[in-house]
Design brief:
33% of the residues lie in helices and 24% in strands. By secondary structure, the chain is an alpha+beta fold. The protein has a 5-stranded antiparallel sheet. Strands 3-4-5-6-7 form a 5-stranded antiparallel sheet.
């Protein structure tokens, strides 16, 4: 029992726990899942769109994937309004760094600066933690392709494959079994789709319930962030045997 140690963000319980931060993590456990996987030639992010009603107009903008800078993108799980604030903060920080030093901001430095902001919201009274987890995918000249996961506490870590949101434990265990260090981007896309189809709540995986983005290097050496269109997603799902091809109408 929390015994009212959860009445403030700043109060430690006798067991050394911050209940409000734990509750924020619990909120993310109910959100649509997001999965990130590192390949030898890129990073793949995949997210589950929660379609709550047939009457909902599916927006043309992305719900789970966001571009932060030319070399960094992120997938989001949790409260979207909280995520928007942090994404805008990250974009401004990345642009400030580029303006000051005339080069892209190292990925880990960007993640760390955003996590410092998150941490501040767990330490001062009258504030609540951001109810959002991020998967950051990026490339820089220091460490190549990188994947980071951060949570409301402000902790972050580098991962080869990670999952946040609903059923993340089941997704992590499948990733642990099936992940290979030298996998190509194509193999990683297949693995991401497989994991999402096995762990998401709805019975069938379709292009409307899915967002897929990749970060990779072009032949010229520049970093490219590519989001798959619904048509491209449908082809991928058919190719990997997740959905049946649509019947031809005469």
């Amino acid at each position: 029992m929390s015994r009212r140690y959860d009445s403030r963000t700043t109060i430690f319980s006798p067991e050394g726990r911050l209940y409000q931060v734990e509750y924020a993590m619990e909120a993310i456990g109910n959100a649509g899942s997001a999965i990130g996987i590192l390949a030898k030639d890129g990073v793949v992010l995949v997210g589950e769109k929660k379609v709550t009603s047939k009457l909902l107009q599916t927006s043309s903008s992305m719900e789970k994937m966001y571009k932060i800078d030319d070399h960094v993108a992120c997938a989001v799980a949790g409260i979207m309004s909280d995520a928007n604030i942090l994404i805008n903060t990250a974009r401004v920080q990345a642009q400030r760094y580029t303006f000051m030093y005339q080069e892209p901001m190292p990925v880990e430095q960007l993640v760390q600066s955003l996590c410092d902001t998150k941490q501040g919201y767990t330490q001062f009274g009258g504030l609540r933690p951001f109810g959002v987890s991020f998967l950051f995918a990026g490339w820089d000249k220091n460490h190549g392709f990188q994947l980071y996961m951060s949570d409301p506490s402000g902790n972050y870590g580098g991962w080869k494959a990670a999952a946040v949101g609903a059923n993340n434990q089941a997704a992590q265990s499948i990733l642990k079994q099936d992940y290979k260090d030298d996998a190509t981007r194509e193999e990683v896309v297949q693995l991401a789709i497989k994991v999402l189809s096995k762990t998401m709540d709805s019975t069938s995986l379709t292009a409307e319930k899915l967002e897929l983005a990749e970060v990779y290097l072009t032949p010229s050496g520049s970093v490219k962030y590519h989001v798959h269109s619904p048509d491209s997603l449908t082809k991928l799902l058919v190719k990997h045997g997740v959905t049946q091809p649509a019947a031809e109408t005469s």
